[in-house]
Design a protein that fits this description.
Alpha-Beta Plaits; 42% helix; five-stranded antiparallel sheet; single chain; Beta-Lactamase
Length: 715
């Protein structure tokens, strides 16, 4: 259950933030300003590339255009790409294997290639990716007024990565701007197109003169504010003032405009009918050829719906839906500054029993009554509701925790709560702490101690004594709970890494590698296998991996390797289990290889050897994993009739530069060849390593150079 390469590509589709929206708006304003100021086309295109690169570190951008006669594409602008790169990308034919840009032009749709070294869309120009270390490339078609592709705008990264919503929108914005720029290669057409963009923009736009008097508004602005063009020409934007911003607001705005030539921020204005509107306003200063202020361009985007949605989401994010108290997320937010706080965690005694007796509806009513009481007697605004039956009180100062808990105990000892026409006496178990960090975790530990002492008890966390071994204990508990939850919810899944046949020069088999999927997150075995071993879950995980791997094998023809452990052999279930699953999925046994660690083979336990020989009698193959790490007994390997040895990654990863690794590997290969055992090199991560592996005559290669672990098979 181990993996040679743990750096897997993750995707994270996060909505565009207000800050990112502002950056896109700034780019749009910057480029439109350059168009309006009659800058040369190549200067503007280079500027688009440069601005885009600032929003994706470790990348370069490029604009490729199609020759109308030859229909081939070449670089028009790529200021960060050396001339040799321009030449390598000259006269490319658009097509399904012509790279990200070739596909974008050919298909007239966006192309997001995460791994150019393997993606079939880069088959025709793979060497370009290798030569210039282009690991991923996202390309957006540039379209003419008829919607046909005339070129592409691309962001090429020197690392494997997937685009976020923000970067997809950046590509769309840049491609749209490039289309505008290309339609304005003469000054006359630039002016005409700029006017068209302003007039038809989805945002409200105002253009004022050097004295900040309105000279033009677009139709969208007229529609939003209710004014006609004639009513506003010559007026000051002060006509929209809502009187909700003080003098300092506008002083800072004009100061930034003078220094930086642009400003953006949230502003509340008044429409013609007197109603109030909240918008995001971006202002850009336009200068003439003598660097004198010529105009101001202001773009208004309505934020009313966004602000209302944000407020609603923020309330939902930070409040318990039943009691309306703050929740755990809000506690984490307000305690990030790690200032000292007094904190009391309260757990309702016997709440599950009360829920069962009185019903869930009355149980909810009880929780609401408790929350109202805590508001009255807690003497703090920071009252929280956690989980189903836990409350918390936070004080931004040091208080007498014993006294406060005793006051709460006294109140609930003296007062009952009515639910379902019955008076109910309530008590709590309490965990408390005064500290500046880990207050929830440590108060939970204190609460556990209090519960162990009985009901209606409290315990105040002792920073000196109670922190001992807390970190390791909590990590183990977390990992164990993660595993149990994954098994219960069927979230233990196999990922498959291809094994490359160096004679046939293709992937012919796969190793099945365990992963846990939780909330769309892929969790590596690095984080849970040790806990699985200590808590006895390994055999359950192995059974799941065998079953799910053979289910995949039933749909293809390749061979597969499955990891088994000493724990599996100790439980002595593998022989019967493999017979059952082979018959269920109708798999030919020789297609299955069992990988065992070198330590298992070299320890030579009689029962283990007997089991492995029985498994081989079914036709299964045996592979020794991480061979060379423990200097195993070579004679024992011969006794086991091992089929494959997998040379440990620590020798392969630097074999092209480390003479010691080279010589050890060479000796291991020599031994394997002499006894007719196949060899696999692990951790083949680049071409240099693969060249040495082939030179030594190693039969198979495994690593990210050929294949990353994937949930679905990719041939």
């Amino acid at each position: 259950m181990k993996d040679n390469n743990l750096n897997e590509i993750q995707t994270n589709e996060v909505p565009i933030s207000l800050e990112q929206f502002t950056k896109l708006s700034d780019i749009q304003q910057n480029i439109l300003s350059m168009v309006y100021s009659h800058n040369k086309t190549d200067v503007i295109l280079n500027k688009i590339c440069s601005l885009a690169e600032t929003l994706l570190p470790n990348s370069v951008s490029s604009i490729m255009l199609k020759d109308s006669d030859t229909q081939l594409i070449s670089v028009r602008s790529a200021p960060s790409v050396p001339q040799v790169g321009h030449e390598a990308l000259a006269n490319l034919k658009p097509g399904p294997h012509g790279g990200s840009c070739g596909n974008a032009v050919f298909r007239n749709e966006a192309q997001y290639v995460v791994n150019t070294f393997e993606d079939s869309r880069w088959n025709d120009i793979r060497q370009v990716a290798i030569d210039f270390n282009i690991c991923s490339c996202w390309s957006m078609p540039i379209r003419n007024t008829e919607g046909k592709s005339i070129g592409s705008f691309a962001l090429s990264s020197f690392e494997h990565r997937s685009p976020t919503n923000f970067h997809k929108t950046l590509l769309e914005t840049a491609a749209s701007l490039i289309s505008i720029v290309l339609k304005n290669q003469t000054n006359e057409r630039k002016v005409q197109l700029f006017s068209a963009v302003v007039e038809n923009a989805a945002e409200g736009i105002i253009i004022t003169d050097k004295n900040n008097l309105i000279v033009e508004i677009n139709k969208t602005f007229e529609k939003i504010y209710g004014y006609s063009n004639n009513e506003l020409i010559g007026q000051s934007p002060k006509v929209f003032s809502s009187d909700q911003h003080n003098k300092n607001f506008f002083t800072q705005m004009w100061s930034q405009l003078q220094v930086q030539s642009h400003w953006s921020g949230e502003i509340t204005n008044k429409k013609k009918d007197g109603s109030i509107i909240t918008q995001w306003m971006s202002i850009k200063v336009i200068y003439d050829e003598y660097d004198n202020v010529q105009n101001y361009i202001s773009i208004f985007t309505d934020l009313t719906q966004l602000i209302n949605a944000q407020k609603k989401l923020e309330y939902m994010l930070y409040h318990d839906p039943l009691t309306k108290l703050f929740n755990k997320a809000y506690l984490e937010k307000i305690t990030k500054n790690e200032e000292y706080n007094s904190f009391i965690l309260l757990n309702v005694d016997n709440f599950s029993y009360l829920n069962t007796v009185y019903g869930f509806e009355n149980g909810d009513e009880l929780l609401i009554n408790i929350s109202n009481i805590l508001r009255k007697i807690g003497n703090t605004h920071n009252i929280f509701k956690f989980n189903s039956d836990e409350f918390a009180l936070l004080y931004n100062e040091e208080i007498d925790l014993d006294k406060k808990i005793q006051e709460i105990q006294s109140y609930f000892n003296s007062n009952s709560i009515e639910i379902a026409n019955t008076q109910v006496n309530i008590s709590f178990s309490y965990g408390a702490i005064y500290d500046k960090s880990n207050i929830l975790k440590n108060s939970a530990s204190a609460l556990k101690i209090a519960k162990e002492n009985g009901k209606n008890r409290y315990y105040i966390f002792d920073l000196q004594n109670d922190n001992l071994n807390q970190s390791n204990r909590e990590a183990f508990i977390h990992a164990t709970n993660l595993i149990k939850d994954a098994i219960d919810k069927d979230n233990v899944v196999p990922f498959f890494q291809g094994i490359y046949d160096n004679q046939k020069e293709k992937v012919t088999k796969y190793e099945s590698l365990v992963r846990i999927i939780k909330n769309e997150e892929i969790i590596s075995p690095f984080y849970f296998l040790d806990a699985a071993r200590l808590s006895g879950f390994l055999p359950q995980i192995t059974k799941i991996m065998i079953d799910k791997t053979l289910a995949v094998m039933a749909k293809c023809e390749e061979e597969f390797s499955i990891n088994i452990t000493e724990d599996d052999l100790t439980q002595n279930y593998l022989y019967k289990y493999f017979i059952e699953k082979i018959n269920t999925y109708k798999i030919q046994a020789p297609r299955i290889t069992l990988e065992i660690l070198e330590g298992v083979s070299s320890s030579g336990k009689k029962n283990h050897i007997k089991q492995l020989n029985k498994l081989k009698s079914l036709g299964l193959k045996i592979a020794i994993d991480d061979f060379g790490t423990e200097y195993s007994n070579f004679e024992r390997i011969l006794d086991l009739d091992v089929d494959i040895i997998k040379i440990d990654a620590k020798y392969i990863k630097d074999i092209h530069t480390n003479k010691r690794s080279y010589e050890i590997t060479k000796a291991l290969v020599f031994f394997a060849k002499n006894v007719n055992i196949s060899c696999t090199a692990e951790f083949v991560h680049n071409k240099e390593v693969q060249d040495v592996v082939k030179e030594l005559g190693i039969d198979f290669s495994q690593g990210y150079y050929f294949s990353e672990p994937k949930r679905e098979l990719i041939n």
